[in-house]
Automatic annotation (TrEMBL), chain A:
Protein name in the entry: 3-isopropylmalate dehydratase small subunit
GO molecular function terms attached to this record: 3-isopropylmalate dehydratase activity
Organism of derivation: Streptomyces luteolus
The keyword Amino-acid biosynthesis belongs to this UniProt entry's keyword annotation: yes
Listed pathway(s): Amino-acid biosynthesis; L-leucine biosynthesis; L-leucine from 3-methyl-2-oxobutanoate: step 2/4
Physiological role: Catalyzes the isomerization between 2-isopropylmalate and 3-isopropylmalate, via the formation of 2-isopropylmaleate.
Signal peptide feature range: none
Annotated catalysed reactions: (2R,3S)-3-isopropylmalate = (2S)-2-isopropylmalate
Automatic annotation (TrEMBL), chain B:
Upper classification of the organism: Bacteria, Bacillati, Actinomycetota, Actinomycetes, Kitasatosporales
Domain Aconitase/3-isopropylmalate dehydratase large subunit alpha/beta/alpha span(s) in chain numbering: 7-457
Source organism of this protein record: Streptomyces luteolus
Record's signal peptide: none
Function: Catalyzes the isomerization between 2-isopropylmalate and 3-isopropylmalate, via the formation of 2-isopropylmaleate.
Cofactor, free-text remark: Binds 1 [4Fe-4S] cluster per subunit.
SUPFAM superfamilies linked to this entry: Aconitase iron-sulfur domain (SSF53732)
Official protein name in the record: 3-isopropylmalate dehydratase large subunit
EC number(s) from the headed UniProt entry: 4.2.1.33
PROSITE patterns xref list: ACONITASE_1, ACONITASE_2
SUBUNIT field: Heterodimer of LeuC and LeuD.
InterPro entries according to UniProt: 3-IsopropMal_deHydase_lsu (IPR004430), Acnase/IPM_dHydase_lsu_aba_1/3 (IPR015931), Acoase/IPM_deHydtase_lsu_aba (IPR001030), Aconitase_4Fe-4S_BS (IPR018136), Aconitase_4Fe-4S_dom (IPR036008), IPM_dehydratase_rel_enz (IPR050067), IPMI_cat (IPR033941)
Length: 197, 474
C-alpha cells in the first residue's frame, strides 16, 4: 500500500447522500480481474449527464471528494475504492461512511475522513464558490485545512500508523504466525471443514 | 456482566489481543466467488504465499453465470474470462470449487447453509456484503473487500476492531400474509440505511423465534442494507433441526459436543447492548420500496410519499431524486404502480420456501399480459428440489420463465437485466439506481407480493387477488 501522510488538492463537491457502491462503480465493471483501469467506470451513469459535477472543466484534476452522508453504502466491492483512486482521488470527506467501504479504503491508502456535516457544508460552500480552492488533508496532524476551515478528524492510532507507513496488513499479521498456529491446535473437532485436510 | 451473542462468538475467535491493536480473529469458513477473488489470488502469487487453510475454504460461481443455456460456452467474453480465472485460481491453489453445472453451484450464501457448512458460533467471511445471511445460524458472518479476502487466504485471520452491538427485538407475531421480507424492510425503513453502521445487529424476540431458518436468513441477509456488517439470531431447535443430516453437519459424538456448545450461544439475561430497537410485529403489513435505497419503503397500502414531508434536508433531496429516477409522483397509491418484470430469486429470497410461496400464489393463475416473470432458484440444488415438487411446472403453466441458479437479475452482471425505464418488483435486496440494469427501476418486495404483482401487473399482495385460481390441469 502507498503511504499517506498529507495531501493538498482541489476538490469536488458531491451533494448527495447515500452514494452507494453501484453508483461509484456499476456491476458490469466488476468483471475485470485487475486492480486498475476502473477510472472510466467511476460514477458512470451520472457522468452521462453533462451537468454532473465531475464533468465540469473546473473540476478536472481535483483529488479530494467531498460527499454527503452515508457514502459507500451497499456492496463490499473494493473496486469502488480502486475506481476512486484510478480516477485520481486521494481522499474522500463525508460525515458518515459505510463500514465495509471505509475498511476497504484504508487498506488501499485512500484516506476517508469523517467530519461533522457542518464542516462538510462549509467545505461545499468554499469549493463551490471557488473551484480553485484547495483542501489539505493532513494525516500526521489529523487535521483538514482549507480557507476559513480548520477541522480535526479522528482515526484510530493503528490505522493511522499503517497508513503513514504504507504497511501491508498481511506481513504484520504473519509476524504473529505462532499465535495463529497455537489457536489452530485448540479448535474443537466439531468445527466444519470443506475438505479433509 | 453478561455478554451478548456477538461478544461470545467474537471472544471465542480471538487469536491475539493487544493494547492499541485491533483483535486478530480466526475465520472458520471462507466463501469465494469469481468477482471479488481474482485480485486476491494475484496478490498471493506476487508474494509467493499459499492458501493457509484449504479445508476452511470453498468457492462457487454465481454473479456472472447465465441462467439460460448453461451447457453452452458463456456468451459474454468478459464474464467467461472471470469464471475461467476463478477456475484456474482454484486449480492452482487447490481450492474446492463448485462450477456452473455442478449440483452444489449457486449463490454463495445459499450454498454454505445448504451444505451444512454454516454453523452456529462460527466466523464466516466472503467478499460479498450479503455474507450477513449466515448470521441466521448464530454465526458471526460479514462481507469483506478483496484485500481482506487475500488476508484470509494467506492467514485464515482478520484484524478487526470490535463493533458495538444492537438488539432488535421483534415483539408479537407476524400477521397472516406478512413475511420475513416485510419485517426486514420495515426495520430498515425505521432505523435507516445508516442506522446499523458500526453495529452487529441481534434480532430477537417472539416473532423472530417463530421464523423458519430460511426466513431468518432473509432477515440477516439484509442487515447490510441497514448499514450493519453483520446480523445474528441465537441458534435454537429450529437451527439444529435444519443443520442435522446435512453433508457437513457434525456426526456422532461431534454432533453432541457441537449442540452442547451451540446451546450456550445466546445473549445472557444481563448482557448490555449498546443500542436497542423494539418493533411490534402485530402492526406490520406487506411492505414495498418506492425509492432508490432500501430504507425508502412503506406499507403496500400507503401512497408514494411527498418529499416535502421530510424535515431533514438531505432526506428530502434524496426523496426528490428518488421519485424523479423512479418516475413516480407524490401521493400516487403504491398499489397503482404497474411493473414490466417480476424477479423471484437472490440470496435474500431464492430458497425453496420462497419458491413454494410464490408458486402457491401463481398456481392456476396467469402472469398478466405484458409482464415478464423470472424465477431463478438460489442454487442448482434448490432448483432440483423445486422440480421434484413440480414448482417449475406451476411457474411455466402461469407463463413465468424458469431459469438456472445464480445471482441473476439481483445485480444484472449476467444477461438478466432490466432495460432503461423498465420497472420491476424484485425479491432481491437492493433498489439502487441502475442495479438491475442501466435505467432500471426496482421495487423490493417479498416472494408473495412478487407473485401477486406478476398476476395483477401492478404492485399487489396475495390478499388483493379476487379471482379464484383455475384448477390444476385446466
Amino acid at each position: 500500500m502507498e503511504a499517506f501522510t498529507t495531501h493538498t488538492g482541489r476538490a469536488v463537491p458531491l451533494r448527495r447522500s447515500n452514494v452507494d457502491t453501484d453508483q461509484i462503480i456499476p456491476a458490469h465493471w466488476l468483471k475485470k480481474v485487475t486492480r486498475d483501469g476502473f477510472e472510466d467506470g467511476l460514477f458512470e451513469a451520472w457522468r452521462k449527464d453533462e451537468t454532473f459535477v465531475l464533468n465540469k472543466p473546473e473540476r478536472q484534476g481535483a483529488t479530494v471528494l467531498v460527499a454527503g452522508p452515508d457514502f459507500g453504502t451497499g456492496s463490499s466491492r473494493e473496486h469502488a475504492v480502486w475506481a476512486l483512486q484510478n480516477y485520481g482521488f486521494k481522499a474522500v470527506i463525508s460525515s458518515r461512511f459505510a463500514d465495509i467501504f471505509r475498511g476497504n479504503s484504508l487498506k488501499n491508502g485512500l484516506l476517508t475522513v469523517v467530519l461533522d456535516q457542518k464542516v462538510v457544508d462549509a467545505l461545499w460552500e468554499l469549493i463551490e464558490k471557488d473551484p480553485q480552492a484547495e483542501i489539505t488533508v493532513d494525516l500526521e496532524a489529523r487535521e483538514v485545512r482549507a480557507e476559513g476551515v480548520t477541522a480535526a478528524f479522528e482515526l484510530d492510532e493503528n490505522s493511522r500508523w499503517r497508513l503513514l507507513n504504507g504497511l501491508d496488513d498481511i506481513s504484520i499479521t504473519l509476524q504473529n504466525e505462532a499465535d495463529i498456529a497455537a489457536y489452530e491446535t485448540q479448535r474443537p473437532a466439531h468445527k466444519p471443514r470443506t475438505v479433509q485436510a | 456482566m453478561g455478554r451478548t451473542l456477538a461478544e461470545k462468538v467474537w471472544d471465542d475467535h480471538v487469536v491475539r489481543r493487544a493494547e492499541g491493536e485491533p483483535d486478530l480473529l480466526f475465520i472458520d469458513l471462507h466463501l469465494l466467488h469469481e468477482v471479488t477473488s481474482p485480485q486476491a489470488f494475484d496478490g498471493l502469487r506476487k508474494t509467493g504465499r499459499q492458501v493457509r487453510r484449504l479445508d476452511l475454504t470453498i468457492a462457487t460461481e454465481d454473479h456472472n453465470t447465465p441462467t439460460l443455456d448453461i451447457d453452452k460456452p458463456i456468451a459474454d467474453p468478459v464474464s467467461r474470462a472471470q469464471l475461467e480465472t476463478l477456475r484456474k485460481n482454484c486449480a492452482d491453489f487447490g481450492v474446492r470449487l463448485h462450477p456452473l453445472g455442478d449440483v452444489e453451484q449457486g449463490v454463495v450464501h445459499v450454498v454454505g447453509p445448504q451444505l451444512g457448512l454454516t454453523q452456529p458460533g462460527t466466523t464466516v467471511v466472503c467478499g460479498d456484503s450479503h455474507t450477513s445471511t449466515h448470521g441466521a445460524f448464530g454465526a458471526l458472518a460479514f462481507g469483506i473487500g478483496t484485500s481482506q479476502v487475500e488476508h484470509v487466504l494467506a492467514t485464515q485471520t482478520l484484524p478487526l476492531a470490535r463493533p458495538k452491538t444492537m438488539a432488535i427485538t421483534v415483539d408479537g407475531e407476524l400477521p397472516e400474509g406478512v413475511t420475513a421480507k416485510d419485517l426486514i424492510l420495515a426495520i430498515i425503513a425505521k432505523i435507516g440505511t445508516g442506522g446499523g453502521q458500526g453495529y452487529i445487529l441481534e434480532y430477537r424476540g417472539p416473532a423472530i423465534e417463530k421464523l423458519s431458518m430460511e426466513a431468518r436468513m432473509t432477515i440477516c441477509n439484509m442487515s447490510i442494507e441497514a448499514g450493519a456488517r453483520a446480523g445474528m439470531i441465537a441458534p435454537d431447535e429450529t437451527t439444529f433441526d435444519y443443520i442435522k443430516g446435512r453433508a457437513h453437519a457434525p456426526q456422532g459424538a461431534d454432533w453432541d459436543e457441537a449442540v452442547a456448545y451451540w446451546r450456550t450461544l445466546k445473549s445472557d439475561d444481563d448482557a448490555v447492548f449498546d443500542a436497542e430497537v423494539v418493533i411490534d410485529a402485530d402492526s406490520l403489513a406487506p411492505f414495498v420500496t418506492w425509492g432508490t435505497n432500501p430504507g425508502q419503503g412503506a406499507p403496500l397500502s400507503a401512497d408514494v410519499p411527498d418529499p416535502a414531508s421530510y424535515e431533514d434536508a438531505s432526506e428530502r433531496y434524496a426523496a426528490e431524486k428518488a421519485l424523479e429516477y423512479m418516475g413516480l409522483t407524490a401521493g400516487q397509491p403504491l398499489r397503482d404502480i404497474k411493473v414490466d418484470t417480476v424477479f423471484v430469486g437472490s440470496c435474500t429470497n431464492g430458497r425453496i420456501e420462497d419458491l413454494r410461496a410464490a408458486a402457491e400464489i401463481v398456481k392456476g393463475r396467469k402472469v398478466a399480459d405484458g409482464v415478464r416473470m423470472l424465477v431463478v432458484p438460489g442454487s442448482a440444488r434448490v432448483g432440483l428440489q423445486a422440480v421434484e415438487e413440480g414448482l417449475d411446472q406451476v411457474f411455466k403453466a402461469a407463463g413465468a420463465e424458469w431459469r438456472h441458479a445464480g445471482c441473476s437479475m439481483c445485480l444484472g452482471m449476467n444477461p438478466d437485466q432490466l432495460a432503461p425505464g423498465e420497472r420491476s418488483a424484485s425479491t432481491s435486496n437492493r433498489n439502487f439506481e441502475g442495479r438491475q440494469g442501466k435505467g432500471g427501476r426496482t421495487h423490493l418486495v417479498s416472494p408473495q407480493v412478487a407473485a401477486a404483482t406478476a398476476v395483477t401487473g401492478h404492485l399487489a399482495a396475495p390478499a388483493d387477488l379476487t379471482d379464484a385460481p383455475t384448477p390444476a390441469g385446466v
